[in-house]
Structure formats: structure tokens, C-alpha cells
Amino acid sequence: MSAARKHTALPKAQTLIEALPWLTRHHGKTVVIKFGGNAMIDEELKAAFAQDVVFLRHAGLKPVVVHGGGPQISAQLDKQGLVSEFKAGLRVTTPEAMDVVRMVLAGQVQRELVGLLNQHGPLAVGMTGEDAHTITATQHRPTIDGESVDIGRVGEITAIDTGAIQALLDDGRIPVVSSIARSADDHHVYNVNADTAAAALAAALNAETLMVLTDVEGLYEDWPHSDDVISRLTASELEKLLPELSSGMVPKMQGCLHAVRNGVETARVIDGRVQHSILLEIFTDEGIGTMVVPDAPIDVHTGPELGES
């Protein structure tokens, strides 16, 4: 064979080499990934997500997956003849609806995700925020038109205990966490926004990165007039933009803000509709989506507490 002939697999080698500095940088670091949107419904995207997460684990990172399940919860509530009502962007959660939420998140969405991950080896372990008191919450009462409103079993996080998750990570496992919490007195179970839960866990675990999968390319610079995506912004720049954001993006971006203001090095919003978006974001020079970074150390402002809006 001629020495000058190029091997057809050479581009693969170049791709792997491009990943090398990123592999070195992220090795041994914890990354919290919020799984949601289309990636949670489309079969091919689900399979690609599972491959990405297992790849991270074998590349020496410590992934933690946090998930909600809005579409699946709505479908099950419909089946049972329970109405889905939303106030201030949050699902009004009656005790009957909470039973459905718990069943769908822990018994359906989480089980499926654990199964997809475990096709690649005995890695994933499912749990909810109730387990080992990982997430403790109190009732969240949003203010609408100047009044505090009761929207049922919707939780605001008051404490995180990372012991069980850390033990799983130390054992080489991939924790898959459903965004359900218990009250401190153990009397109530709460439905917690999964974006908020992922951000709180990322901060408590001293994660290097929080990644939030969405159904958009990232944070748009001037939507709807332009589809240019902001590739990078600081916590203070993001805080100024928060009042202008669409309601669906607010908990995601508030979560990113909370994470980087509480020790997480980067928070990224990426397009879950793109196969292998996680690998593209972490292991390529271009990256995709929007990355939020902390302000310079001179900024001492600690930012809003979780649950504030």
C-alpha cells in the first residue's frame, strides 16, 4: 500500500484528538445533566442521550442525570380524567395529581432511562429526591397579582443531602434522579421543577458543569427578530436578561444563574433535538448552545435564592 495514500479513517482520529484537551480538563469532574424536552420523547434521541451519558462515564467524568416528565404526566392525568391546570407557569398539583406525578416520574420515565443506560453495562441506579432525604422541600406559593396562591404539592427546595448520590458516584454508578422531594417533617411529597432540582444538585455536588437540554438551540440574542444564539454570557449579563425571557426558559436560566453563583464552573443550555449534543458541547472546540460563566471574582453579589423569581 502506498505510504502517501490517506487512510479513510483518518478524520475519525482527528476528531478523537480534538477531544483530548477536553478529556484531560473534565476527567474526574462531576457533570449534572437535566434531561427533558424532545430528547425525552423521541426514541432515537433517547438512545443517543443514553450513549452520551455512558460515554462521559467511560471518559472519566461523573455524570448525574436529573429528569422531569411534563408531557408524560399530562398524558397520564388525561387518561385518569384529571385536569392539568397551570398557574404562574407551574402545574397545580392536587394530592391525586401528585400520586400520578410520582408514579409517572419514578415508575415510568426513570425506569425507561435507567433501562436505556443499562443496555451499556450495570451503571445506572434510579432514585428520587425522596430517597435518603436527597431533596427536602416546602410548599411553594407563587405570588400572582400581588397575592400568594396555593397551587398544591409544588415544592420549593430547602435542603440538599448529596450523600446517596456521592456514594453512587464513588461506586462508579450513574445516578438517575426524579425531581420529587419530601417535606422536612416527612408528611408530604412535592413535585419540584426539574431545572431547579438539577441546578440545586449541581451546586451541592460541587459539579464542574450543569447541562440543561432544551427544545431550542440556546438563548437567542434578539428573539423573535433574530435566531442568533448567545454562545457565552456571564451571570450578571444573564440576570439582566431574565425579565425578557419566555416563561419556559426562565426556570432553566434561573437554574444556570444559581449554579454558577454557587460554585459550578459553567452552566450550559443545549439543544436536546440534536443527536449527541452533549458530546458536541463537552468534547469539541466549537461547542453548541449557550454557556453561562461566573462573574469575575470582584462581584460579590450572590444572586437570587432558589425558588425566587
UniProtKB/TrEMBL annotation:
Domain Aspartate/glutamate/uridylate kinase residue range list: 29-271
Site-annotated residues for Transition state stabilizer: K34, K252
Keyword Amino-acid biosynthesis: yes
Principal subcellular localisation of the protein: cytoplasm
EC code(s) of this entry: 2.7.2.8
Pathway: Amino-acid biosynthesis; L-arginine biosynthesis; N(2)-acetyl-L-ornithine from L-glutamate: step 2/4
Source taxon at top rank: Bacteria
The keyword Amino-acid biosynthesis appears for this protein: yes
Keywords: Amino-acid biosynthesis, Arginine biosynthesis, ATP-binding, Cytoplasm, Kinase, Nucleotide-binding, Transferase
Molecular functions (GO terms): kinase activity
Binding site residues for substrate: G69, G70, R91, N191
Catalysis performed (reactions): N-acetyl-L-glutamate + ATP = N-acetyl-L-glutamyl 5-phosphate + ADP
InterPro entries, per database record: AceGlu_kinase-like_sf, AcgluKinase_fam, ArgB, Asp/Glu/Uridylate_kinase, Glu/AcGlu_kinase, NAGK-C
Localization (cell): Cytoplasm
Main function: Catalyzes the ATP-dependent phosphorylation of N-acetyl-L-glutamate.
Family: Belongs to the acetylglutamate kinase family. ArgB subfamily.
Protein name: Acetylglutamate kinase
Organism this protein belongs to: Streptomyces rubiginosohelvolus
